Amino acid sequence: MRGTKITTFANDKGEFSITTEQEPPFYIQVSSVGYKAQDFQVLKFQDTPLELTLVENAQLDEIVVTSRRRSEVLQDVPIAISVIGGQAAENAGAFNVNRLKELVPSVQLYASNARNTTLNIRGLGSTFGLTNDGIDPGVGFYVDGVYQARPAATSTDFLDIEQIEILRGPQGTLFGKNTTAGAFNITTTKPTQVPTAKVELNVGNYNFMQAKTSVSGAVAKNLAAKLAISGTQRDGTIWNTSEERRYSGQNNLGFKGQLYFTPSDKLQILLSSDVSIQHPAGYPLVIAGVTTTERSAYRQYAKIISDLGYEQPKIDPFSRKINTNTPWKQDQSIEVSL
Fold first, then answer.
1. Which helix (H) or strand (E) segment is 86 a member of?
2. How far is CA 172 from the centre of its chain?
3. pTM for the predicted model, two decimal places
């Protein structure tokens, strides 16, 4: 009964009874698997049973994936896959893999900076702290079928995503050697013949601002083009007392251009080019504590800095303060064309 804690269950024939001291009119909420939940108003008591009819749910839309290098219905693919739609990712604010991991079970991403990043699935992939530009990851990262060879690509912003497929388990047969733990298969939306445009603006604390825009339309018969731009800016969360400035901020800029030629139903040609530029205000490490070693007392850290006349400003991971006189920078540029 709506507005009360009175509930009951129907038998195999769909019959049920409910006892109440409430006088009509009142509402009964009825729900069943495979049917739409519905409220029924009871205007008066009667001796004969009430007949309530529920409407069947419409069938779910088919989810088409390209996890086996061809378009297939998800239910027909014998692989452990999670699929996140582009709109669902946008609604959750998942504009990169670091945000997306909150939506997908068994996906972990660890990063002290963009170029020392580990993407794992089910705890497998590569060891955090030992990754760099020269080590191939254990989880493949693909955008429109193109392999992104370095872990830094996972820190770039998504641009006009149609859907994201997370494939668990070894995928070397279809995706190559660097997919021992699985693969991320990202598909972007294709240009359309019908003119379309989209603008998105997000703001938040620490002067966070993110702007995205895309324009698509026909340039000739059976030829469409699209241009997408994304920019993310946020102040840092760690204060450097020496330089009097903030670090660990965001400064991302991304461009994506596409040409889509469809001469027939059996032939489609997609030319795409991506450029991503990141100039963040570094990724410094805050001192969490100092441990006493087995060295002599005069060789302990506290004694050494005391003799040098230096005082550590903060030894507290929650203070989010550092004291360094060298700028922290991890600039990177990623360009992909196909």
1. helix 86-91
2. 24
3. 0.69
- Tell me how far CA of residue 254 lies from CA of 101, 263, 280, in angstroms: 21, 30, 14
Do 104 and 137 contact (CB within 8 A), yes or no? no
Q: Which residues contact 68 (CB under 8 A, 6 or more apart)?
A: 77, 79, 174
Contact (Cβ atoms closer than 8 angstroms) between residue 141 and residue 147? yes
- Give the CB-side neighbour count of residue 283, counting CA atoms within 13 A: 14
pLDDT one-digit tens code per residue, 16-62: 888 888 888 888 889 887 777 888 888 888 888 888 888 876 555 66
Contact at 8 Å (CB) between 9 and 30?
no
- For 19-41, letters b (16+ CB in 10 Å) and e give eeeeeeebebebeeeeeeeeeee
∠ CA 139-144-147, nearest 5°, is: 40
Q: Alpha-carbon distance 229 to 21, whole Å?
A: 62
Q: Which two tokens stand for residue 63?
A: 């989810």
Residue 5 has pLDDT above 90, yes or no: no
280 prior amide bond cis, ω within 30: no
Give the H or E element holding residue 90: helix 86-91
Which residues 6+ apart lie within 8 Å of 242 measured at CB?
322, 323, 324, 325
Strand partners, 165: 83, 185
